[in-house]
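An example makes the point: we let one protein speak, the chain in one-letter code, the fold tokenised, and here it is:
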Amino acid sequence: MGAFDGLLQGFAAAFSWEGILFVFIGVLLGTIIGMIPGLGPISAIAIMIPITYGMDPTIALVMMAGVYYGSMYGGSTSSILLNAPGVAGTVAASFDGYPMAKQGKAGKALAISAIASFVGGTVSVILLMLFAPMLASVAIYFGPPEYFALMLLGLTAIASLSDGSTLKALTAAVLGFMVVTIGIDSQTGTTRFTFGNVNLLDGIDFLVIALGVFALAEVCFLILNRRESMSGFKNIGSLKLSKSDLNEMKGPMTRQSFLGFLLGVLPGAGATISSFIAYISEKKLAKKPKEFGKGSIKGLTGPETANNAATSGAFVPLLSLGIPGSGTTAVMLGAFLVLGVQPGPLLVTENPTVFWGVIASMYLGNVFLLILNLPLIPYFVKVLSIPRPLLISLVVIFSLVGVYAVSFSTFDLYLLVLFGVLGYLMRIFAFPAAPFILAFILGGMMEQMLRQSLTISDGSLMIFAQSPLAISLIVLTVLSLVIPAWRNARKRRANHDGSIGM
């Protein structure tokens, strides 16, 4: 069967009344789940596996896929409105989305998020349909050395996440690395930085970090800085986007649809890393980078496009190779096997209805998400009209319940408060939170890839010189460090010469 015939068969399955119904159920559940910290798509899909027993595999899988990419839409809502990321992949959306909400532009921020997500999701589905088999073969060439070099390149951009001191940005990143090493070393089984506390053996959950450093830190700031204006919160602003707004969105949507999809294809990268890299790259390309972090349209459009594009990209290794590209697709792999479907190179020939049905359902799902989210924006933003004391109380309860629902551990609640205080202190002393979060996300994977590389080479660092791809990424890493330093030196020299001339 050819690709075109398979796609027609997939569309027939996705556009049947059952397909339409379960795609809608999936994206609706995903949107709701994404807004609630503590649940997330992994928990939702895991819960749905026993519910789908006896269902047609295609219908069951399109519903689970809907939950996956629907959660990216939902997670953005809590990030933008409350600075409380519901899903890890939407953390970067809070960097400019929340400042826009504080400025009275919450409606515009959510509209930008919905449109950017729709474009990123739609473009990536087209790319998935056209290039899935070819990109799967490219992803095979990424081994531990290449992944380590890629993550190293991502970390060198840490300085660009800070408008202030580069030293403070790097200090925040080092702190993120230290936090991620807490727990049992997966390779040697030794404990690290637990100080004899058994509650730290499993490490610290990302949700504790995200809600502490962002949501609770914002609560501390609002309580301790009563002069902070809340007038913008009461004014949600218009949902309409002007022609200049749309023109400003075009570039990031085009670039990040492709970049997000390509990063999503790489096993282990996922929507979280894609959204951070999208934010970093847009800030580097911007003519006015100082606007980022203060309500920039490009700063919101980039990560929102990339995280949804990466969600579709993650299905490439899953469907074509049977390799999960993220925690969510790992659970999806289990769902495939439970339903009697073996993903991999033979899936497209042995079970084309499932392969193309999942892809075709994404077209439908993205349309449903746009139709669902745009009309609901006025209702979402009403949360900002809640009186300030009640809103602060709700954010605290929201965060506490979300963290407790994951681990059922009171110790994690103490950690949440601790990181809330840390986030507040970082804000007061101008230490950026973004490098801290990025280092925490990349640190564990980066350490694992370095160790695997050195194990393969018997401890020799020459393994990184033997891969052309790794060498290329390392060269880019060096350039990303040297070029900004050279530019800053030139600026200082020019300013110095100018002051002497005066």
